[in-house]
Each structure stands twice: as C-alpha cells, then as structure tokens.
Amino acid sequence: MTADYLNVRSSASASSTILGSLKEGTSVGVVGTSGNWLKIKYNNGYAYVSATYINKSGTTSSSSGGTSSSTGGSSTASSSGSSSSTQYTGVTTTAVHIRSQAKMGDNILATFGAGTTVTVVGGTADGWLKINYKNTYAYVYKDYVSGGTDTTTTTSGNSSSATSQYSISFGRALSEEQKVNSSSSLAYYLNPKNFAKGTMGYYQFLKLSSLANISESDATKILSGRGILSGHANDFLTAAMKTKVNEIYLMAHALLETGNGTSQLAKGVKYKGVTVYNFFGIGARRRQRRDQRCRIRLQPRLDIARGSYTGRRGWIAHYYIYNTAYHQDTLYKMRWNPVALVAGAAAHQYATDPGWAYKQTSMIQTMYQMLSHYTIVYDVPAYK
C-alpha cells in the first residue's frame, strides 16, 4: 500500500481490525467522533478512520455530552501526517464477568477465565476498565486484572507501529529461556533491539492479525512459479479473510514449509483413502512411521489448495494468533511468548530454534517489496 490509502477500522483504536482501505480523495460520511477517531458510514454499517487523515468539507458539527455528530456534508480522506495512541494489555487473575456497561447488574456479555489477556483502552473514576471486545468495547473491574503491557501506537501513512512494554527485565526473560534451551544464540534472537526498523529482521514484528489488504493481482505475482501453490492467489486471500490472518504471512509460511510448493505434502498425500494436505508443518515429528507422521501433520490443516480451512479460525489462528491467553500475533511472539515469560515460564512457543522467527523474514520482506499497495502493522516488544 502506498501513502495514498487510508485504513478503515472496526473500532476507534489503531490496533483494531482493519476492514478495508480508502483511496486518497474518497468522500466519507462522518456520523460521530471518538477521541481522534471519526465514525463513518461504511459498507451498510459503520467503521472508524483516524481524524488526522480526513479533510472536512461542508460539514457542520453539534455536540452533546462529549459526543459530536456531523450533518449536511462529507469529509475527504487524506493520507499525510501521523497519530499516536496508548493502551495496555492486562491479564485476568480469576474468572470474571465482562460487562456491557461500567456497573454491576444484568449486563454480562461473557465470563473470562483466569489468565485471559485483555486490551485496556480506558477506564472510569470508580474502577472499571474499558477493554476491546469483539470489535466493540466492554468493561471489567480493575481488581480482577493484573500486570499489564503498556502499548504505544504510532501511525504514519500506510504503516502503524506499536511498542509493547512488558513488565519483565530482559535478563529475567533470558534466564527463563535458558532453563529450557541451551543455545548460545538465545540472547541475540530474544533481544528486539537487535532488529532495527527498515531491516529484514524487523518483519518478525509484523502483526499477523492485521490484513495487508493486497490485490489479487499482487498475490498472483507472488505465487507465480511456486509449484502447486501457483494459481491459488484467491484461495490464500479467501483464507486470510476467513481466519483474519495476514495474507503475506500465510503465503510466506506455506512457501517455507513446502519448499516453494514442491513438497509431496503440498501436492497431497493419500491417507485412508482421502487426499490430505499440509502447508505449514503443523505437528511435524521425526522418527515416526510414515502413516503416523501423516496423521499427526495433516490434522488439523489449513487447506489453501481447496480454499477451505479446518476449524472456526484455522489452526495457527486459533492456537497462536488469537489465543485468548497469549495473543501471539507476531512471529516474535509465536517464538518467544513474552506474556508467558512475564508469568514465569518459557511456555506455548511455536518452535525451539532460536532463529525461527528471523528466518521467515527474508521471504516476507521480498513479498512486501513486490506489492503495488498494502497496509502494514508492527508490534515491537520492549523489556524493562
């Protein structure tokens, strides 16, 4: 995505789901405001864009109780400038009710178990925390949320970058890792400071829950000549939309695990009379009989070749990117899991190779450099 596109989001937060993008000069109908965000009419519903990128034209405003509405005109998307916002991530300490309003009563939306990660975006004077919940907001009482990861997000053009401050020192995080892995390269790959913005390694901080919003023609170009995966651009884009997982990551990970679409598992293997596929090396184990290996590796699977996926979100999305306890939505978090380190253990990590996240960035960088336009969101961890 070039600088003449603007992200449209599901809620008034730079970390919320990206629903699409608007080209510079597009007219939008503004129906309200929320801080530095504008609520607009979008696809028979409502969405949000940063007010920083909107030029008003022929608009009158009225306010009541801190909420503004817009009538009699439209606004135009602009892509210059930058904005920032602050939020933090906390963890529930016990089973707790999530409520639609900041008060006790019959307004319970859900019950979160102990250890659930919540993103706090605000609060009230009487102790309620406002959190992100299913593309909207909800409330939980502060006494049941501990710790916290302070997150500051800065947006400029097509790029958004968040810095998440974890309440653990780098030395302690390294010590926890050394309990389960004796590799001499742990300290290098664990330290986010070793990977500067603009370098290949920075792509391990790509937020995997954010869509790149690329075109089918760009996806086709990326997959051209990639074995069995060539010609399946639309299948990847469809899977990305269904699972809400970054489409560049899906393609890069699949290409890495299938030898650029040439492995037998990518082409399909007969197992008990059914042709099954595996594009992400899920459940891979060595020194097992071939039938056992196929059974473990191929279930569950994200079956891009047939444009479908197993489970509500897909295996990687469900167990890592949208995991309610850890939210491992970058390659770095999938490998190192800072939330688990804060809790005192090197746990729920996708790989044992210290360089696993970094080794995937070369292909991801190459893919982004091939795109005509895209959206990109980063989330960079920071230790005390």
Give a quick summary of the entry.
The protein has 384 residues and is α+β, with helices and mostly antiparallel strands. It has helices at 170-178, 186-190, 216-223, 233-243, 247-257, 264-267, 290-297, 315-321, 331-336, 338-343, 356-359, 361-369; strands at 5-9, 18-23, 27-28, 30-34, 37-42, 45-50, 54-57, 60-64, 67-71, 74-77, 82-92, 96-99, 108-112, 117-123, 128-133, 136-141, 145-156, 159-166, 269-271, 274-276, 376-383. The chain is 23% helix and 32% strand.
Draw up the topology in text.
Blueprint: E1 5-9, E2 18-23, E3 27-28, E4 30-34, E5 37-42, E6 45-50, E7 54-57, E8 60-64, E9 67-71, E10 74-77, E11 82-92, E12 96-99, E13 108-112, E14 117-123, E15 128-133, E16 136-141, E17 145-156, E18 159-166, H1 170-178, H2 186-190, H3 216-223, H4 233-243, H5 247-257, H6 264-267, E19 269-271, E20 274-276, H7 290-297, H8 315-321, H9 331-336, H10 338-343, H11 356-359, H12 361-369, E21 376-383
Parallel strand pairs: 18-21
Antiparallel strand pairs: 1-2, 3-10, 4-5, 5-6, 7-10, 8-9, 11-14, 11-17, 12-13, 14-15, 15-16, 17-18, 19-20
